[in-house]
Amino acid sequence: MTATFTLFEASETDYTGSNNLTTTVSPFVSISSAQLSPCSPAIDAGLNTANTTTIDLAGNQRLINGTIDMGAYEFQSNQNTFQRTWIGSLNSSWNEPGNWSPACLPTAADAVFINASPNDPIVGSGLSVHTGIITLNISVTLTVDNGGTLNVHGSGGALGNINMNSGILNQGGLIKYL
């Protein structure tokens, strides 16, 4: 099959074409809706010239942020900051989308909350991760391994314990105990 500007499950490999994306988590808000979640890789990933309408399937504005979304619905948030909550249900890897709710990795614009969970987060060696405000429950230990970097952007936030393990913390915002 030949496809362009298409979002596939990561296990799907029998296609050719350009500007395709893969994902390991659902890009949708629920199993009964094709509207995009705030973490969807389909946001701002479409082809503007393929669009012939000004509204999406829900009757909302079709083009936001300059690039159309893949799919029938345009993600409608005009927020620049989203909340990401650590749930740590899979393992300790910061870089595992399934450890976050919603299931996507935080960015420099996101408010990050890390509460007690089965696994405390670890920023592994070779990773450079970014957050906006970061809030850790006082019972949580955030580990930045040797060769890992945690970049905190924004102002405000609260922090539990940090175990640096020779890692690097680049702090642009306020860090304090909750």
Description:
The chain has strands at 7-9, 21-23, 28-30, 33-36, 83-86, 100-101, 111-114, 122-123, 128-131, 134-136, 141-144, 149-152, 157-158, 161-163, 168-171. It has two domains: 1-78, no CATH class; 83-171, no CATH class. The protein has 178 residues and is mainly β. It contains no helices and 15 strands. The protein has a five-stranded mixed β-sheet, with no helix packed on it. It has a three-stranded parallel β-sheet with strand order 8-11-14, with no helix packed on it. Residues 172-178 have low confidence and may be disordered.
In the residues, how many domains can be counted? 2
Q: Sheet with the most strands?
A: 5 strands, mixed
Shape assignment: elongated
- The neighbouring-strand order within the major sheet is 6-5-7-10-13
How much helicity do the residues have? under 10%
Using the CA coordinates, give the radius of gyration.
Answer: 18 Å
Number of strands: 15
Mean pLDDT rating? 81
User: Proportion of β residues?
Assistant: 25-35%
Total helical segments: 0
Low-pLDDT residue spans: 172-178
Secondary-structure element pattern, one letter each: EEEEEEEEEEEEEEE
End-to-end separation in angstroms reads 53 Å
Structural class: mainly beta
Protein name: G8 domain-containing protein
InterPro entries: Choice_anch_Q_dom
Organism: Salmonirosea aquatica
